[in-house]
Design a protein that fits this description.
This protein is of the alpha/beta class. Helices cover 33% and strands 23% of the residues.
Length: 213
Amino acid sequence: MTIEYIASCKLPTPFGEFAMHGFEETATGKEHIALAMGDIGSGEPVLARAHSECLTGDALFSMRCDCGFQLEEALRSVSEAGRGVVLYLRQEGRGIGLLNKIKAYNLQDQGADTVEANEALGFGADMRDYSMCQPMLSHLNIQAIRLMTNNPRKVKALSSAGVTVSERVPLEVGRNPHNDNYLNTKASKLGHFLTSSAPVDAPVTVTHQDDEP
């Protein structure tokens, strides 16, 4: 995938000031951003998250998923570490798009789980592509990352795309009665490393090993 760097600016947030870098896929025009803080070009692994867009969770405060909680915790964790990056990737609904996501939610309202709903609409359980991440990180002179995720498939996908993932950092936060089944499905069908009793707004646990939590 060919990614073109467009521009950068300052972005003050409740978690501190980030540098926001904009990128565009040349073939599709799809836009992505990187929110960076601190000295990220030293060669040392950088705390990072590859966060796929979730309008409902990130902007509309939905409790059906853990996306908004994870985005907030990732930004907070980068700020507390003093250095890091959050890649915000425009691939809504695990890559199926916003309107198809609404259709999937409708099927979930009728009893389907998140995987069954996607498959009923003719999609795979996860249609996301992370091939844009390596050129974005390369532009920022980031050589290796400590990836905040509970998803082993994301670690594998980023590694396959040429990103050096030196460590997986658990990011388990935001479990509540509205997303409990959703998270259980992530664990049972998609292999996410999740406990079954994480409290609402549980803080992220940053470890220095790649063991399962």
